[in-house]
Amino acid sequence: MKLDTLAPAQTKTKRTRVGRGVGSGLGKTSGRGQKGQKSRSGGGVRRGFEGGQTPLYRRLPKRGFTNRFAKNYTEVTLTMLNNATTETVDAESLIKDGIISKANDGIVILATGKLEKKLTVKATRFTNNAKEAIEKLGGKTEVI
Length: 144
Known about the structure:
Layout: H1 56-59, E1 74-77, H2 78-81, E2 88-89, H3 91-96, E3 107-110, E4 120-123, E5 125-126, H4 128-136, E6 140-143
Parallel strand pairs: 1-3, 2-4, 3-5, 4-6
């Protein structure tokens, strides 16, 4: 133990009890002021309320739409497949090799880069060029 490592003991912060008499300093109106919406029980304004002015979320135009049923595929390129350690490549082997972190709704093989070895690839989707490149080297493609 050294003098420069000493620190004062942590003190427990006491919870302030409001509305417990004049002597506490927070009696009568309990620090809420006199009258008005914020002084009432349950009072206050909702999120996004701008005092009656048309709020921002209503002033801005609404555009586009989000498809709730869209599939989120993890993209894997041919260059990434070169780093695979096994002959048969699927989502689990890619995660195990650290090539992808998670498979989401499946994996899609893209024809970016150049494949340098013969592989059997199992994926949810393949682009046409990726399928050709894999089969050109004598590999196989399987759609799961």
